[in-house]
Amino acid sequence: MVKDITDAQFEETTAEGVTLVDFWAPWCGPCRMQSPVVEELATELDGQVNFYKMNVDDEPKTAQSFGIMSIPTLLIKKDGQVVDKLVGFHDKNRLNQVLSQYI
Fold first, then answer.
1. Any coiled-coil ranges, and where (predicted)?
2. Which partner for 73 in 6, 23, 44, 100 could form a disulfide, CB atoms 3.0-4.6 Å apart?
3. Whole-model pTM above 0.70?
4. Mean pLDDT of residues grouped by 10 in the chain (103 residues)?
């Protein structure tokens, strides 16, 4: 399951384990394409990777702090450290390949 998080929750929520955060907005077409891919992977990798999404319109602070200028952007953290950043739409195979490096 992919959970929504806020700027206030970001650091604590992504501090442990492997985490993918999907930065998105409702008006973004590629974001709407990315969302089902992330949801599907969240089901398949449950217990191995934590999945979150953050609406950049409602929660701009975190996106700004990471220099996110385009969405969708997928930020991957391991034990609180950013280990990868993917900009634009990525298919399931590509995301699975990237995440498997950190699991």
1. none
2. 23
3. yes
4. 96 96 97 97 96 97 96 98 97 97 96
